[in-house]
Model the fold of this input.
Amino acid sequence: MHRFANPARFLRIAKPLTPALFWPGLLLTLMACIWGLFFIPTERLMGDTVKILFVHVPAAWLGMGGWTGIAIASIVQLVWRHPLAGVAARAIAVPGATFAAICLITGSIWGRPTWGTWWVWDGRLTSMLVLFFLYLGYIALSNASSEKGDTSRVAAVFGVIGAINIPIINRSVIWWESQHQKASITFSGSSIDTAYLAPLFVAVAGFSLLFGALVLMRMRAALAAMRIEARMRRMAQG
Amino acid sequence: MKPKHQRLFLALIAVVALGGAGLIAASALREEASYFYTPTTLAAANVEPGKAIRLGGMVQKGSIVRGGDGVSITFIVQDQERSQKVAYRGITPDLFVEGSGVVADGHLRPDRVFVAESLLAKHDENYVPKELADIDMNAAAYTKDTLAP
Done:
């Protein structure tokens, strides 16, 4: 793991990896959007509003996946003191918060025609809103506690504690009766027809690659900022 | 023990303790955090008439009876074990169909009929193209939803 502890070595890999994730991600996302918008059959009950699926589900997956990444990076930071872990966690926070917000907004727009309401305080919706607030808290805490691109230990502890919400979001529709339906895709299979499942997989893959590219870009920017600051400090002293 | 191992040990204990605390809290909330009563939990809960509650379940096939005035309807909400009669006055949501899920805001009348003030449709986790659903009218029967009849 400490092979990448040297930021220079990490940057050598991250630089070509960024476009390698970004362009296929953009291509797959555009493909999924066009496929999902124009080439899918109307749904039995929801009609055309089913198209929101192709944004809502990838956004939910990345919102939750983002915090899982923050939690893992935070543990790596706290236990191994890995110099890049804090940078990675902080780079994930803003895209993660954005996708959590996209999930909440698209869900709300979907809820109006489907359920007849913009919002209800059931277990799934509430726990997802809590995730969004946790992101905001994490961003504020890491910004306040570290001037550089990395993350303070306080923020890392917050990242680990906040992870408890992830299984709660996942299980909320099973533990508690909720307005939101149960999971469509489980280990035992999918209850989404192939006509929707295929573009959904393309969308999830595309959004995920874009997310990876965004995180790498933000990590590289943070490392560059840290280098500038170090050089300025040396110049000020010299 | 090296400091690194000590930190790993502490982090693992913290994660296990957190997970345990979360699970205990969630199971304690099991009833409280449910968004609605099902007919079965409503029957067990002994809710007094007039108290504002929510009822959720599947609309029983063939149970929708429309009143002469065009806006009042009655129907039966069921889960796997019990059913509950519901009366409602107003426009029903588009997805309100027999055999589909519904969540109703309202209260119990003294005669144990549930008076709904608002109805929300509840979509299940199945996504089926219209053409396929027309061929197989029982598509909804595949549902994994515990509320399915």
Summary: Confidence is low (pLDDT under 50) at residues 136-149 of chain B.
